[in-house]
Amino acid sequence: MIREIVQVGDPVLRKKCDPVTRFDESLSVLLEDMKETLKDAVGAGLAAPQIGVSLRVVVVDVEEGYFEFINPIFVWQKGEQYGSEGCLSVRGKSGSVLRPSKVKIIFQDRNGDKYSLVARDFFARAICHELDHLDGVLYTDKAENIRDEDA
Ligand code: CO
After folding, report:
1. DSSP secondary structure letter of residue 17
2. Which of 71, 81, 122, 150 is deepest in the core (most CB within 10 A)?
3. Distance CA 33, CA 151 (A)
4. Is-above-0.85 flag for pTM?
């Protein structure tokens, strides 16, 4: 089901999300809703608080594929990249954000199985942006030159 994307100003976007402890049917439903909502919005990633659910769940849709990360944690972050970002919860804006160029995360899948993953370039940027959402951080907190996209 396509869910409404919460917009900046809603307190759910500023909360530290809770870890997922139950890998059950309701988690699968959440993930399917996030996938549909992200595809519909044509974004690179979506975090659960963006549909009003304060849980540590993100989905990322990039060149490398479609990924579900549950309880993701950084193992390390390396290098620097400077580039443009937008957010489905901050409509019509973009801004330049400094991010690591390469990251390693550990995470769980929808069954609770543990994995690790190394990402670089835009994939790393998308992961950093989405993981920030889980701690109530928006890219606009870090961005320079926030501008209207159609300006
Ligand atoms: Co965002």
Report:
1. P
2. 71
3. 32
4. yes
Neighbours of ion ligand 1 (CB under 5 A): 87
**Which active-site residues does the annotation give?**
130
Domains of the chain: 11-148 (3.90.45.10)
pLDDT for 26: 98
Please tell me the distance from the alpha carbon of residue 37 to that of residue 6, in angstroms, as a whole number: 12
pLDDT > 70 fraction of the chain, expressed in percent and rounded: 99
Sequence-distant (≥ 6) Cβ neighbours of residue 135 within 8 angstroms: 16, 17
Q: How far is ligand 1, taken at its centre, from the CA of residue 129, in Å? A: 6
How far away, in angstroms, is 139 Cα from ligand 1 center? 7
What letter would DSSP give residue 112?
-
